[in-house]
Design brief:
Layout: H1 2-22, E1 38-41, E2 52-60, E3 68-74, E4 94-100, E5 108-117, E6 120-123, E7 127-130, E8 140-143, E9 154-162, E10 170-176, E11 187-188, E12 196-202, E13 210-219, E14 222-225, E15 229-232, E16 239-240, E17 244-245, E18 251-252, E19 254-257, E20 260-263, H2 284-288, E21 295-296, H3 302-308, E22 311-312, H4 314-318, H5 323-327, E23 340-342, H6 345-354, H7 361-365, E24 391-394, E25 400-403, E26 406-414, E27 419-426, E28 433-438, E29 447-449
Antiparallel strand pairs: 1-2, 2-4, 3-5, 5-6, 5-7, 8-9, 9-12, 10-11, 10-13, 13-14, 13-15, 16-19, 17-18, 19-20, 21-22, 23-29, 24-25, 26-27, 27-28
Length: 450
């Protein structure tokens, strides 16, 4: 035990002696080992289709000389010097300029400055930039003239003369009420792909409104546009009427054109206005034998009636419903609702004169487009809002012709004992014609307010 105490005392004395000796000596210098340097990336400027200028500034060499410096770039973030896409702009600290070469147009790049010393490579802050689009890579498209302008539609298109660097994926026209329309504008059509010509139907336009239109073509590199055209839709030639409700409860909308109020769809009643039934005919033989009022559907098919309504012989228009009423006009029925009448030759003539004459009036009356009318539906604008359809006719023998190509409407005027007046339209002219037709023929009917 005495031995152990002696050892402890010896250790304490030695420790105290060392502490006293050290406190009187000079401080020891701490040596910091060298590290990688510090570098910042310069702004990217003068960006062209295939080059850009940047650089960097080395703010510290980390205690070891800088042996290489420059910039490195790639299409992926955080590029490193393991890539071939880099520069070597000398040695040493300080600032330097550098140019990135062999870039691709219309491409986003990530770029960093770098500085290398014996202990590794330091990178500056990353900068993102995008090279501009090469115009030669875009398609070349020509806008075609705007035609067939109506109150709410027009026709245009374009020609893709060069697809550019890659295939054209979509093409069409764009339009707006402000200049230089783009794919983000109010209206756009998509009319196929690749090169060549295309036609665009422009719809849902406002009446009496100026529009700006351009053709476009898109490939992987971007979208190019053709020449801009300006056009103005036709003004409306009508105001909306109050319409009329028939005896069977069916309602017909109407428009007022030159102080005349016309229904905007064909008559489709199965009774006279007192409830007396107008017979439906479903065979050609029965139709050919008639000398009293009747109606049929085109081709005797109900589906045609859904679109074009009923075809009536003139006897139904005159209210000739039985043998006695053939010779006694006082016994005849009324097919039109109270306060309205079947259109007359005077009604059609007045309408034609207001619209500029029979040679052009039909275009203002026909429904626009080719949904129902056959191509070319010449001059159709429907500026009157009457939406005349090509319901065709049923001949005196009970055969059918003209659906899609002609629309015919009875007039209440009798021409002679065999014929009565009618007015008609066809798909390949703007004419509004009138002629006497055999009373046994089946035609459409429009009403006019008294």
């Amino acid at each position: 035990m005495k031995y152990i105490k002696s050892i402890l005392l010896f250790v304490i004395l030695i420790t105290f002696s060392n502490c006293s000796t050290t406190s009187n000596e000079d401080p020891i210098d701490v040596v910091v080992p060298p590290t990688i340097g510090a570098v910042t990336t310069a702004e990217v400027i003068d960006i062209t289709l295939n080059s850009a200028i940047s650089g960097g500034e080395i703010t510290s060499d980390g205690g070891s000389p800088i042996t290489a410096r420059g910039i490195v770039w790639d299409v992926h973030p955080n590029p490193t010097i393991s890539l071939n896409s880099k520069t070597n702009d000398g040695t040493g600290s300080g600032s330097f300029d550098s140019t990135a070469l062999d870039l691709e147009s219309n491409t986003t790049y990530y770029l960093r400055a770098y500085a290398t010393n014996l202990y590794g490579t330091a990178y500056g802050n990353q900068i993102t930039f995008t090279t501009p689009l090469n115009p030669d890579d875009l398609p070349v498209v020509i806008t075609t003239e705007v035609t067939d302008i109506t109150t709410n539609a027009a026709l245009s298109g374009g020609i893709v003369t060069n697809i550019g660097a890659t295939a054209v994926s979509s093409r069409g026209v764009v339009w707006s009420t402000t200049p230089i329309p783009t794919l983000n504008s109010t209206g756009i059509t998509v009319n196929g792909a690749n090169s060549g010509s295309f036609t665009s139907e422009i719809s849902n336009l406002l009446p009496n409104t100026t529009y700006y239109l351009r053709a476009y073509a898109t490939n992987l590199q971007g979208t190019s546009y053709g020449e801009e055209f300006t056009f103005t839709t036709n003004p409306l030639l009508y105001t909306t009427g109050t319409g009329v409700t028939a005896f069977d409860g069916s309602h017909y909308n109407s428009v007022i054109v030159n102080d005349q109020e016309w229904t905007t769809s064909n008559l489709n009643v199965s009774t006279y206005n007192d409830g007396t039934i107008i017979p439906q005919v479903q065979t050609a033989a029965a139709w050919a034998a008639l000398t009293t009022g009747a109606w049929c559907y085109y081709s005797f098919q109900t589906s045609n009636g859904i679109v074009y309504a009923k075809l009536y012989n003139w006897y139904a228009i005159a209210g000739i419903w039985n043998e006695a009423s053939k010779t006694d006009p006082t016994l005849r029925k009324k097919i039109a609702p109270t306060g309205w009448h079947v259109s007359t030759t005077a009604d059609w003539t007045s309408l034609s004169d207001f619209l500029g004459g029979s040679s052009i009036a039909g275009g203002f009356i026909k429904e626009a487009g080719t949904t129902h009318w056959s191509t070319p539906n010449t001059g159709a604008t429907n500026a009157t809002g009457m939406t005349a359809l090509p319901g065709g006719n049923c001949s005196t023998s009970g055969t059918f012709t003209g659906v899609g190509t002609s629309g015919n409407w009875w007039c209440s005027d009798e021409y002679n004992t065999v014929n009565a007046w009618c007015s008609g339209l066809v798909s390949n002219t703007k004419n509004l014609s009138s002629a006497p037709i055999n009373k046994k023929t089946g035609y459409s009917v429009r009403l006019v307010k008294n």
